[in-house]
Specification:
Transmembrane protein 120 homolog; single chain; membrane; TMEM120A/B; 9 helices; mainly alpha
Length: about 350
């Protein structure tokens, strides 16, 4: 075959493949337009149905609180409506999660803009993003521990600045990733989101603190606290990941977008209560850090550095918020267990005995 004939054959193949590709691309564009139109229609329908179901729910609540008692037939109908209402609203919530979010939220709008859609419609994509978030936390935490050890061995301000800059970047990135996770259905508690915002500001303030005698007095305590918290976080990430997988496999968690947290949650009572002492020690050190900074500001001539007072308040907020959160969770869990034990005793007491 001559080179001319080879060229003609390759050209004909190229033209045929181009025509097929063009047809496929046109079909893709048509389906994309249809998908966008169907998404918009579905979003409007779900939003309208959620509003209507909310009105019906409020009407049912008013009827239950009214003095006029319904008849037996009406009671059965109301119970049926209540049951179906729960099913409908649950399914509407699932449908809403499978559609693009209407808004990225104030924080993401500032950083990414209002026109960028960060909704991951494929459940596999959402799960992979969540897993990548967990991997990011673990990897960066290892790097932070390494830099903190180096800063402890080599007590130079430049090394401290690298550590603090790394932690500022880490917490800033966490806040962005968590905002995207929340848009995609991850139910992250408000305190842990606020905790990362406060940690970002806290590390940023330490980064701007000048290398004076007051900074050197607090430096050792801060490095120790940071290393300890990082080690506890590594323990939590490993054990919480296994716990979440076990709960998902048993069907005790509804969402695959649950993430590991720096604190303690109710589902962690499933065998992870051994983490409580480590967390309590961390919160005590945070509270002591606040006390130490207040003492330095009031009695050790450190009132010229505004960072001292600002850090004292921030450490106090973090310690108080962590303690309040963990106490509320433990108290609620004790109440649940007491309620279940009381109910089981009553059932056992009044169960008909076999003849």
């Amino acid at each position: 075959m001559t080179s001319y004939e080879s060229l003609i054959e390759d050209w004909n193949t190229l033209v045929a493949n181009f025509e097929n590709a063009e047809k496929s691309h046109d079909e893709y564009l048509r389906l994309q337009k249809d998908t966008t139109r169907l998404q918009n229609n579905s979003s409007r329908s779900v939003k309208s149905l959620l509003k209507t179901s909310g009105q019906v729910k409020s009407y049912l609540k008013k009827l239950e609180q009214s003095k006029d008692k319904p008849g037996e037939d009406e009671n059965e109908k109301l119970e049926e409506i209540n049951r179906r209402m729960i099913e409908i609203r649950t399914r509407l919530g699932e449908m809403q999660m499978e559609l693009p979010a209407e808004s990225n939220g104030f924080y993401l709008k500032i950083i990414l803009g209002s026109n960028l859609n960060v909704s991951l419609l494929n459940p596999d994509d959402r799960y992979r993003y969540k897993e990548e978030y967990e991997s990011f936390k673990m990897t960066v935490t290892y790097f932070i521990i390494l830099t903190l050890f180096l800063a402890y061995i080599f007590p130079y301000r430049a090394m401290d600045a690298i550590c603090n800059f790394l932690m500022v970047w880490y917490y800033c990135t966490l806040t962005i990733r968590e905002a995207i996770l929340r848009v995609n259905g991850s139910r992250i508690k408000g305190w842990w989101v606020a905790h990362h915002y406060i940690s970002t500001v806290l590390c940023g303030i330490i980064l701007t603190w000048r290398d004076d005698q007051c900074y050197k007095q607090f430096r050792g305590l801060f490095i120790f606290l940071s290393i300890y918290i990082c080690l506890v976080q590594l323990m939590q990430c490993r054990y919480q990941t296994g716990c979440l997988r076990r709960l998902h496999s048993l069907g005790q968690r509804q969402s695959d977008m649950d993430i590991t947290i720096e604190g303690f949650s109710s589902w962690m009572f499933k065998g992870l209560t051994f983490l409580l002492p480590f967390l309590i020690v961390a919160y005590i050190i945070q509270g002591y850090s606040s006390y130490r900074l207040f003492y330095m500001y009031l009695y050790q001539d450190c009132n010229e550095d505004w960072q001292v007072l600002a850090l004292a308040f921030l450490f106090a907020i973090v310690a108080a918020g962590n303690c309040f959160t963990i106490l509320r969770i433990v108290f609620r869990k004790i109440q649940e267990r007491y309620s279940l034990s009381t109910r089981s005793r009553l059932v056992s007491k009044y169960r008909p005995k076999a003849i």
